[in-house]
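Hello,

Following up on my earlier ticket. Below are the two sequence lines again, exactly as submitted.
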Amino acid sequence: MATSAATITPGKMPEVKPVDGFLALALVAVLAVCVRAIWFTPVDAMLGAAQKIFYVHVPTAIMGLYVACGLLAVSSIGYLWIKDERLDRLAEASAEVGLLFMGIVLATGPVWARTSWGTWWVWEARITSTLFLWLLVLGYLVLRGAVESPENRARLSAVMGSLAALLVPFIHLTVKLFRGMHPGPVVLKPEKPSLPPEMLATFLMALAAFALLFFALLRVRFRWATLRDARAALEAA
Amino acid sequence: MSTGLFTPRVAVQDTVAYVAKREGPPATEAYMWAGYVITVGTLLAYLVLMARRIAKSKQG
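Thanks for your patience. The regenerated structure is below:
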């Protein structure tokens, strides 16, 4: 196996901080965007203030489904190809941070649905398939914890990770393939976005802030995995 | 008269629970706060988890 000897050297621990400058910046950005969304963005005439859940629900969905699962698939396939441990750690970090973001999507969605659809949960295609993806990614992380051998763990989880991510294009198309409660595209569509300029500005800022937070958490999670593997290598030596 | 006949049909076809009201938007602030508390709380819980993991790995 090609290893990342440059990152893991027995006797030399990588430096990892729980909150570094990048993560602190991302947290400030997310807090600022929450303040803007709650106090400085107009209230929706039909749904009231609950519509403001949109500014956390949609950006976390974009990062958790498209970016995290995309990274999971690419790094898993990359691992199966070149067998670099860093790709295995990137896949693991993407899965965990993606699970966190998808968890926020699945938790905030029902709160918003209660006000806009009059019910907490609907077994429609997009919600159900997102729940399945969340369970698959959870299964991916459980599988990693259940396999002792690092090589087997990396290989088996890479296969599962690349297969789980195949659900993402299906989830994307559910609003076109099935009749459901979720609306079609609001921002990314051939016509003008269906949002007033103030709401669109808040949404784009929220997307940027949650993207920063995603990559900051991914960085911390990846570095911790490097530290954990270095510790394991040190103990084995 | 014709307006009265059409109104129920439009209402039946509308799948959205709330429609714009004369008195203004519905009072759904509690749901908004619940959404933001869930988001911020989940993120803070994950940060605490990562801090504990890193501290444990450093201690060995």
